[in-house]
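Quick one: structure tokens for this chain, please?
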Amino acid sequence: MGIKANGFGYWLGFALLAALLAACSSGPVRRVSEPAARLQQLTVGTDGSWTVQVRIENYSSIPMRFDRFELTLQAGGHEAGTLQASPALDIGPESADVVETRLMPSAAAKLAVADALAAGRGLGYQLTGKVVATPEESRKPRDFEVEYRSSLNPAPGLPGVLR
């Protein structure tokens, strides 16, 4: 003789199982991931200096305060210099923001950028260094190593601008 399941017992068991599973959950996962930094725009000034927009990307599931960065920039295979800033910038989870900094690049890097702009072609670049950030609810800043390679292209209608 088998056990008969009635509708009420089935739903009661299901409700108990759902309540048990809900009690075991601890909310959303709070994860700190390595941030990224890349160039959004490089503008050549009349004095030969560059205004560089650095895009900082927070891949964490929590907000982070980006205290500073120090990134060595290579442009067209030539070391251009070091991009430094202390933005003290709060960036939300899985979001990004832009920090503008200035650089007086090396002569070789200046020539590489000028050649790319004159020829209307892209320019490869590399960023290496560190980003210092403090996760939300933490008082301890963390150093994150950054290495990023990509390229910039001349912006149509904007002389002296690579994006």
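The longest helix spans residues 7-24.
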